[in-house]
Amino acid sequence: MARIIPNDPLLAIGRIIILIGQAIMGFAATAVVVGLPLVIFLRDKATVEVRAELGNPDFVFPTLAVVLVMLLALAIVVMAFLFLDRMRRIVDTVGEGDPFKPENAQRLTSMAWLMLGIQLLAIPAAGAGLYIAKLMEETDATVDASIDLSGVVMVVTLFILARVFRKGTEMRADLEGTV
């Protein structure tokens, strides 16, 4: 484990929050992986129960759509876990007193791509969720499937920060070479 500067409570708190986030993402991924076979193998039981609840004898449980939403959710959760892992590693290098490492530029770039993937996968996940809600005759169901502007700003910011870190490490290497 990396040594965090003891007089910097922000790093310690940030690391704890990141670890809690990773634990939540790990739990969510486990729940989806356990739930996937249940959805597939219990679809007949779900069809019977939903038919009775809706009063619709022709209802067929949308197994494929539910599995699609679960797979998209799993991909999003795994990407969020990996995003937090990269962030934790950056926090650790700050705590060690050496954040301008080439690895951190790579981590920031990876975080940007992961966040972009999360943003893009949220769109079909929301659409499939709305489709399922409509099949379940949820009349009040709505889904906001627009691109989140804050997510776009985060992706651009991460790509820019990656370049800043890359340039910073180059400048430090040049400076060390001249001294």
Could you tell me the mean pLDDT? 88
Please state the overall shape, judged from the principal axes of the Cα atoms.
elongated
Number of helical elements: 5
Count every beta strand, where a strand is a DSSP E run of 2 or more residues.
0
Measured on Cα atoms, how large is the radius of gyration?
22 Å
Derived structural class = mainly alpha
Write the layout of secondary structure elements.
Elements: H1 9-41, H2 43-54, H3 63-96, H4 102-135, H5 149-178
Helix pairs in contact: 1-3, 3-4, 4-5
List the main descriptive attributes of the protein structure presented here.
about 180 residues
What does this structure look like?
The model has no long low-confidence stretch (mean pLDDT 88). The protein has helices at residues 9-41, 43-54, 63-96, 102-135, 149-178. The chain is elongated. With 179 residues, it is an all-alpha fold. The protein starts with 8 loop residues before the first helix and ends with a helix. It is 80% helix and 0% strand.
In short:
By secondary structure, the chain is mainly alpha-helical. The protein has helices at residues 9-41, 43-54, 63-96, 102-135, 149-178.
